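ok trying this again, last paste got cut off
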Amino acid sequence: MGIGPVPTSSNLNNRKWLRSSYSGGNDNCVEISGSQGRVALRDSKRPDLTYASFTAPAWREFVSAIAAGTLT
């Protein structure tokens, strides 16, 4: 999977972060942000912590595996 280097907080803090509408408005979820062919993922409760970063193809593969129930 195309998990890459973790972006620095300075280039992610200026991004727009998206949260699923299924989160119900609480802070117990993850947020994503996309830019320059990568998708960043963070914990909404602790946005100050490290972010995970994926290539766009790896993110699509990950989401597809979740939808198909094939993650092991």
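PB: full thing came through this time. The longest helix spans residues 56-68.
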